[in-house]
Amino acid sequence: MASKMQVSDGDHIARLIACLFMAIPFFERGASNGKFLNYLNKHIFPVFDKLPEEWKVDLLKDLAESSPYTTPQDSRQILPSVVQLLKASI
């Protein structure tokens, strides 16, 4: 997760989505999703509009599925970015 997002690299996007999806059961059992959220906030959300539609849906779906396990601090940090994405897509 230390590498910068390559919008043109479909493999990078697919790996990120797969990792986030596979991590959800760990979040359910108490693992922090803060690092994923920080990565999304710093690297994915700024280029979100450049992603193919299929990846956008998968990312938002996985983000929504992990949201119940987000700490209040992480929620406050990522919420403005999520609201902006939702406003832009409506």
TrEMBL record:
<dbReference type="GO" id="GO:0005634">
    <property type="term" value="C:nucleus"/>
</dbReference>
<dbReference type="InterPro" id="IPR008383">
    <property type="entry name" value="API5"/>
</dbReference>
<keyword id="KW-0053">Apoptosis</keyword>
<dbReference type="Pfam" id="PF05918">
    <property type="entry name" value="API5"/>
</dbReference>
<protein>
    <submittedName>
        <fullName>Uncharacterized protein</fullName>
    </submittedName>
</protein>
<dbReference type="GO" id="GO:0003729">
    <property type="term" value="F:mRNA binding"/>
</dbReference>
<dbReference type="GO" id="GO:0043067">
    <property type="term" value="P:regulation of programmed cell death"/>
</dbReference>
